[in-house]
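Exercise: predict the fold of this chain.
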Amino acid sequence: MSRRTLEQYHEALISGRAHGLGAAAARGALSLAEPVYAWASTARNVLYDTGIFRAHNAGRPVVSVGNITTGGTGKTPVVSWLAQRFQRCGLRPAILMRGYRATASGSDEQRLLQRELPGIVVYADPDRVRGAARVLQDDPKTAVFILDDGFQHRRIKRDFDLVLIDATNPFGFGHVLPRGLRREPLAALQRADAFLLTRVNISAECSPQATESVLRRYNPTAPIFHCEHHHIGLSNSDGQTIPIEQLLKRKVFTFCGLGNPAAFEIQIFQSGARSVGSARFGDHHDYSADDIANVRRDAQSAGAELVITSSKDFIKLKEYQRDGIWQVEMELRFQLGDEDRLVELIDRHVPCVAGAG
């Protein structure tokens, strides 16, 4: 079984979409492993909380942007937004990331952030403490670090922990890995300095109030903010653009390798596009020539007018693979003044952020 097929089957199991005796037995086996993973995560946190495991100072203020589930919370746009806020107020930020499933040219997230943030260091190293030291060695004027996907990376001290909660699947199907998608038990939420509910605009089935109730149970004091991820248009490698409104009733075929592919697909179809097919790959998938050839074949067979993928997927495609494929342009929007309130809160820990225009 390929990694793509295995990941898809795992998601079907933990989400409950897979039915039958075999699926029930598999979920039972995953449930046996769940408390072991949860115990190991809790024990590790206790070792850090008691100082037995030491957290290292990065030499500059650190703002962590992380989540309690595996991927798919819309984190990259938030990291990009925060880096720009720092830059606009005269601070020189640097982004520290793990570089998960990176190729010789870097990971998809690293390359996307480098494209969106010219002049800002985006450094990938699984050891973020070592990464911070190397960044400061090369660029001593770095004023603040943004720790990408850093909630569980407790080896590095942070001044502010922003935890993202995906409104479309806030708690990883209600279970810790491998039975669900949570990296830690919900008690870990008490470490957060603030929560940001993402994608609150995507589905009418989302209930921010119910999600906030759970967050309050584990962390009564951390402020909760809200943001929306909006698709605003499409673009291709030739520099052509299509406003999102022009997708109305057009036949589209989508493909992606994201942690939350359903959220990506829902937003495409909320624009009024007509789905004639889709292909889902594993998170951070490295596309082969055969993958793209199969996508093109399936899209043509389905009568698609447009083949659409995410910007994170598009940036991984080689030049010859991009012909005829469109990427979604996305915009982050905060609700009801939450952007300014969040910035003011971070500013208490990292001065000057609130001064951004």
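Check your answer against the key: Residues 3-49 form one domain.
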